[in-house]
Amino acid sequence: MTSSHAASLAPMEDALATLLDGVAPLPVERQPCEQAEGRVLAAPVVAALDVPPFDNSAMDGYALHHEDAGQRLPVALRVAAGAPGERLERGHCARIFTGGQLPEGADCVVMQEKVQRVGDEAVIPADIPAGDNVRRRGRDVRAGAPLLDAGTRLDAAALGHLAGQGIVEVDVHRRPRVALLSTGDEIIDPGKPLAAGQIYNSNRPMLKSLLERFGAEVVLTRSVPDSPEGTRDCLKEAAEVADLVVSTGGVSVGEEDHVKAALETLGTLNLWRLAIRPGKPLALGQMEGPGGTPVRFVGLPGNPVSSYVGAWLFLRPLLGALQGCESMAELPRLWARSDFATSTGPRQHYMRVRLAFAPQGVSALAFSDQNSGVLSSCIDADALAVIPPHCEIAPGDKVECLWLRTW
């Protein structure tokens, strides 16, 4: 590659900064918690209740005051989970079950396997400390304390946390609406017969899945004809319904690549030639939607691996910014030992790797064919190994990896 060609390639970080410049979270809406998985909180949630709300038993056993341990005690109470608490007099014990409210006057629980029952009495072992096998009130959450921060993406644990407060609705940012366009007359939807020179559209289902994984709602899919008029009409239709328009293909400089010219008639476009592999061509732009609202445009390359990698590097942080989710700004990073040898020129390489975890460390196992048209290299990929420009990697060298097993 000539030095002038290399100099024309832009760093990925510059394109990402341009993409995210001026992006603000979408409006807020109220959502039932049972439908809020994957949504992003628009406001912090403060706990209204202690969790647990009372001292309770961590197991089936016998509740007593710890100073009464080592004695044969009358069993004065039976405490099941969900029953109101009662007072336990000193010198007595209570049969208690997991989750049962600790009686007033008791401060520990002895598991039933350590207790010998003799009629209406229980022989309690000695040396039972106060608090043993007791889940104290507020151990998990204290009333008035922060429960979840704004920007939290609601997963199973977070939804359970909300349910523990009796919360049934939350304020979340609206899902970004995405229009997904596929360019190229040679691209055919699965299920239709292939003619000579045609291939099936693998990008659309792949990107639709990733977009939804990143929190978007795909509201429109279209196959864009290879004509200036057809391309412009599809872009205009997409801008009417979407916050973000994503296209695949048509962003290079070929005679049949009409996206750049069509977008320039409807808004603005910046065509980037990135110093990354795969995914060198990237189109970033903006159009106007209803009422003058901004509609972002991202044009990914047509090669499926380039689209896959581009979705992780660009679409995920953009959708995170539209949802107010800072944790989506970057992929989690970890270091691993390479099982491969490679070298790079002026472009940074994102290699598809499977990670092997062992007591001696993490290994990055590279797919043998890293060509941008080989989508099978993405199927078992746990991560993208980042190989900097002008770099030599030998087996055993440490490489930085971007973790893909995430939202």
Automatic annotation (TrEMBL):
Keywords on record: Magnesium, Metal-binding, Molybdenum, Molybdenum cofactor biosynthesis, Transferase
Q: Check the record and name the Gene3D superfamilies matching this protein.
A: MoaB/Mog-like domain, MoeA, C-terminal, domain IV, Molybdopterin biosynthesis moea protein, domain 2, Molybdopterin biosynthesis moea protein, domain 3
Required co-factor(s) are:
Mg(2+)
Q: Which residues form the MoaB/Mog domain?
A: 179-321
Enzyme Commission code: 2.10.1.1
Which reaction equations make up its catalytic activity? Answer: adenylyl-molybdopterin + molybdate = Mo-molybdopterin + AMP + H(+)
Annotated pathway, please? Cofactor biosynthesis; molybdopterin biosynthesis
The regions listed as transmembrane in this protein's record are: none
- What is the stated purpose of this protein? Catalyzes the insertion of molybdate into adenylated molybdopterin with the concomitant release of AMP.
UniProt record similarity statement: Belongs to the MoeA family.
The record ties this protein, via NCBIfam families, to: Glp_gephyrin, molyb_syn
The name on file for this protein is Molybdopterin molybdenumtransferase
- Organism from which the protein derives: Halomonas litopenaei
Upper lineage is:
Bacteria, Pseudomonadati, Pseudomonadota, Gammaproteobacteria, Oceanospirillales
